[in-house]
Amino acid sequence: MTEAECVECGGDVALSDDLETGEIIDCGTCGAELEVIDVNPPVLDRAPELEEDWGE
Amino acid sequence: MVGVKVGILYSRIRKDEKLLLSELRDRGHEVTKIDVRKHQFSLDGTTAPVEGLDIVVDRCLSTSRSLYATQFLDAYGVTVVNGPETADVCADKAKNSLALAKAGVPTPKTDVTFTKESAMQSIEKFGYPCVLKPVVGSWGRLMAKIDSESAAEAILEHKATLGHYEHKVFYIQEFVEKPGRDIRVLATDGEPVAAMVRSSDHWLTNAAKGATVEPFELDDRALELVEKASAAVGGGLLGVDLMETGVVSDDKSEASQTESGVDYTVHEVNHTVEFKALNDAVGDDVDVPGKVVDWLESKAAESADKEAEVSA
């Protein structure tokens, strides 16, 4: 288990071992949705807002 | 099967994609993740690393990206599942309904209209309640169950005034009295992988809307409809949604009747189907990602055979 810094609140975000680029995780401190930009080393950014054509 | 070179088109990795990636890697396949946001798709080629891949799986969360990316890859001669024709039909509810009706698959009565006035005429024809849906959309978003004339007028006014041009295509459907649940079947070229019922007190029973899910055993009629619905949209890895419609009437053929006396209507087929809820619902009984990867391996082998034939 590693950690990265939340770009929204600066808090530590716990990361799972099977982290994938493109995955979305929630900041446990501020609740922001964060996108995993890179895994080695882990880099997070604010996740894109929900778009109208998203889905299945 | 020996290692397959698999590309995954994506812009977001959901639990569904993680399940898929994990299964592919466990089997020793070489996976290339392709974030479609980072690439250019030109008429004669792309910056996306598709060269040498045996098969590409479209897992784009965004419908518009899915539609264009699959078309471009197909134009380059890359084997992509689901293919652009399937994506085109499934991405649009009007095209989806037309394809199902054309194939003789029972589907809810539907009107498409282009003005508020003609939409009101359709709504009055169906009676209350009826349903208004966006032609493109998912997860139950912007779906309206219309209970009265005043509600209809307000919703149509809002859609016509505030909406994107697609919201000015009014897709109006009869309200199907389902028993508080609908059925989701994950199927590969019409062959069910697993099925679940999605139950809710709300009229929308999407898993994304918080419906509870349980495994479901398909009867012969449901199996027949899943196969037909899949073929109607061009086949592929699909999520076929059915609603139970009660006792079969006497005028239907024996083949359409089920032991329980229940028949079905197919309201939708989804082409970038999510299966995490289904995977949770069926637990250890069905290896959902395993079966999906079995199918991908067979599609990759099929594609390799075709290429060998062409070059022979």
Automatic annotation (TrEMBL), chain A:
Top-rank lineage group of the source organism: Archaea
Annotated Gene3D superfamilies: 2.20.28.160
InterPro entries given in the database record: LysW (IPR005906)
PANTHER family: LYSINE BIOSYNTHESIS PROTEIN-RELATED, LYSINE BIOSYNTHESIS PROTEIN-RELATED-RELATED
Name of protein: Lysine biosynthesis protein LysW
Natural source organism: Halogranum salarium B-1
From TrEMBL, chain B:
Any GO MF annotation of the entry: ATP binding
Pfam assignment, any one: RimK
Keyword flag Ligase: yes
ATP-grasp domain residues: 97-297
Alphabetical keyword list: ATP-binding, Ligase, Metal-binding, Nucleotide-binding
Record SUPFAM superfamilies: Glutathione synthetase ATP-binding domain-like (SSF56059), PreATP-grasp domain (SSF52440)
GO cellular component: cytoplasm
Classification via InterPro entries: ATP-grasp, ATP-grasp_RimK-type, ATP_grasp_subdomain_1, LysX/ArgX_preATP_grasp, PreATP-grasp_dom_sf, Rp_bS6_RimK/Lys_biosynth_LsyX
Protein name: [lysine-biosynthesis-protein LysW]---L-2-aminoadipate ligase
Source species: Halogranum rubrum
